[in-house]
Every structure is written in C-alpha cells, then in structure tokens.
Amino acid sequence: MIEINLLPENLRKKKPIFQMPEIKITSAPIIIGIAVLLVLIHGLTMLTINLQRRAIDKMSVEWQREKIEKESIELTRRENIKMRRKIDAIEDLMSRKILWAKKLNQLSDLVIDGIWYTSLSIDRKTVIVEPKEGASGKSMAMRRFATERVQIPYLSIEGEVSSSYGDELAIISRFIDGLKSEKDFFKDFSNIELDSTTLHEIENVEVMKFNINCYIKEFDEEA
C-alpha cells in the first residue's frame, strides 16, 4: 500500500538509521551458557597455573635439598681425605727413629722471648723432587724429565709473636736460626722454613701469627 504524507518536510518524523534488534527471550539461555563456559575456562586456567607453580616450587625445594646434601657429602669426603693423610703421616713418623717426646722438650727449651706456641701438628706436603747429582749417567736434559712428585712429612709449628718485643719477622727468623743451630734437634730434619704469617691485634698490641714447617728427612738422607 502506498502512503502519502502531506506534512511539510521539516515536520515529518525521521526514521532512525540503526535500530537495535529485538532480543527474544529464547536467546537468554545461550548467553548464560557462554558466560558459564568462559568462567569455567578461566577457573581451569588459573587452577593449571597454580598447580604448575606448586610443582616448580616443590622441584626447587628438592633441588636445593639435593645441593645441600651433595655439598655435605663433598665436605665429608674432603675431611676424610685430610684425616687419612694425617693418619698416614703419623703412622709413617711412628715408624721412624725419632724420639718425639725429646723433640717436644727441645722445642720448649728453644722458644725465645716474644714467641709462644699455639699448635703443633704433623702433615704431608707434595713436592717435586729431582734426581740427585751423580745418581745416574744421564744428561741434564734426561734428568729434568725424571723429576717426580713425592709427599714429604713435616712438623708444623704454629705460634704468635708480639711486636712489643721488636720486629716480628726478625724475631721469627732468630727463632728458626735457633732451631737449625741446635744440632740434636735439627738432625732429623732436612729443612726448616717459614710457611706463612698473618697480622692481627690483641688488646691494641700488634701480633703476628706464623707457621713454620720442619721437613723430616727420609731414611736415605740420614747420616
């Protein structure tokens, strides 16, 4: 049917350009279902993330525990090696013809003013030894390749010296000279040398810690 509108153009009602579609009541369950599905997907995603995070945290704790256990085992192994080395050194020294009680008495007599002992122990040190001169007819070049690593037992003397008695290094040097000059004490050692020193203070007085190594002769070195 044809409609004729006789109203002027400015009085006519304009039709809207866009008109919202009518939502029927029958489409509401579909929208609700989609919303519920999105909520479930979000919940499952968050649950998966939390489970993965807990698994990562658990693995991190287990890895840290294993790391601590490995470090403890390695420390125990090193301590056992160190203890075994000391035991071997003591057993080796016990088989030698050295009167250690006499040595200790001599050390007590040879101590000088300004020095006091803090520790006496027996240990081993790995050194490079070259063949003795005249041991064979090989040339110097051949003898250089004949060097070997051996473990030499030594008596470690740890102590301290006070600066109030004078120059610490000079006092230690005088003490070592005294040990070497005492023939009855030095006869069982191939050398006596200063191994290390460390400075610290005791009641505002400078004190030097020192470590002296007395290398014990091998049987074939004894006169």
Order of helices and strands: HHEHEHHEE
Radius of gyration: 44 Å
pLDDT under 50 segments (min length 5)?
137-142, 219-223
CATH architecture of the largest domain: 2-Layer Sandwich
CATH class of the largest domain: Alpha Beta
Strand order of the largest sheet: 1-2-4-3
According to CATH, what is the topology of the largest domain? Threonyl-tRNA Synthetase, Chain A, domain 2
How many structural units, i.e. domains?
2
Mean pLDDT: 78
Q: Compute the number of helices.
A: 5
User: What would you call the shape?
Assistant: elongated
Distance between the termini: 142 Å
Tell me the total number of β-strands. Answer: 4
What helical percentage do the residues reach? Answer: 40-55%
User: Which structural category fits the helices and strands?
Assistant: alpha+beta
**Largest pleated sheet:** 4 strands, antiparallel
Q: What is the percentage of strand-forming residues?
A: 25-35%
Structural descriptors:
4-stranded antiparallel β-sheet; 2 domains; Threonyl-tRNA Synthetase, Chain A, domain 2; 5 helices; 223 residues; disordered C terminus; alpha+beta
Question: Can you characterise this structure?
Answer:
The protein is of the alpha+beta class. The protein has two domains: 26-95; 100-221, 2-Layer Sandwich (Threonyl-tRNA Synthetase, Chain A, domain 2), CATH 3.30.980. Helices cover 46% and strands 25% of the residues. It has five helices and four strands; from the N terminus they run ααβαβααββ. The chain has helices at residues 28-94, 100-110, 140-145, 168-181, 183-186, and strands at residues 115-129, 148-162, 189-202, 205-216. The chain has a four-stranded antiparallel β-sheet. Strand 3 and strand 4 (205-216) form a beta hairpin. The radius of gyration is 44 Å and the shape is elongated. The termini are far apart. Residues 137-142 and 219-223 have low confidence and may be disordered.
